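Example record

The entry below shows one chain as it appears in the dataset: sequence first, then structure tokens.
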Amino acid sequence: MTEAILLVGGKGTRLRPLTVHTPKPMVPAAGVPFLTHQLARARAAGVEHIVLATSYLAEVFEPYFGDGSALGLHLEYVTEEEPLGTGGAIRNVASRLHSSADDPVLIFNGDILTGLDIGALVSTHTTSGADVSLHLTRVEDPRAFGLVPTDPTGRVTAFLEKPQTPEEIVTDQINAGAYVFRRSVIDTIPAGRPVSVERETFPDLLSSGAHLQGMVDSTYWLDLGTPQAFVRGSADLVLGRAPSPAVPGRCGDRLVLPTASVATDAKLTGGTVVGEGATVGEGARVDGSAILAGAVIEAGAVITDSLIGAGARIGARTLVSGAVVGDGATVGADNELREGVRVWCGATLPDASLRFSSDQ
């Protein structure tokens, strides 16, 4: 296995305001853009050539990662003029692949944090002789996901979109967003139009008699599609619960990047990360949160399970819990922001002006 496609074109609408100025895969998690963790894990599994399928804010990726040599990779970038969906994006980059018709090509969704054993997925694909192999994971409540039942040998038998009744929940296995395609199968995806692999490509392949193989791996899996999930994923990377060779420091209760400043009596816990140039003031308490580059947490503030955007400022004694503060926003002293609150990029909240806990 030497080649992969990384799907990084989504707008990240559910993550706003984090994604107003930054594409979702470039939002920092555990101190580096989330995409860095995916690239590093792919490289550790033996992948050498990765094509990034970009769309939204596509111009951001290449200046940061370049040709990939710093990570031991050869990176290429293909930008969609119009969003093409997961299947369309895969087909759109096919000309950049070097693999032969029967070679395996690894494909990742750009918003999944996982401990998947990549080598085991490739091995399953090769030994089963599948046309496409899918990473499956088990979840307690599968109603928000597409179900993927399999027979006793692991062969996929159906694709069932988001069940609504107990009778429809025939399995707890869901599509976990990582695949191995036989190279020739990619060329069967229609070109030049939006295509969903989940709703069109996979069901069509199944109905045509193709062999789709599932491999269940439930070591660690998290869809980072919401701010709450993204914050949790960053904390899990810092804590070492989610594996990544790209965490810029030792795993533990806290990760403070080199140019950050943290007061000696400030308390950082729960996988908190403090980004480059950020400041945490005297007596502040930060638990399970991500403080991005250049942000300022003033004295006595309490930040829990939240993300504070780049260059944002949280005033003295302000409480932020389960909330997101966008890049460059200012929240004055003595405010209280609780679960679901989102403060937009560049917004200013005066001192003691806000005490509520509804989704904004």
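Notes for this example: Residues 91 and 186 are 6 Å apart (CA to CA). The mean pLDDT is 92.
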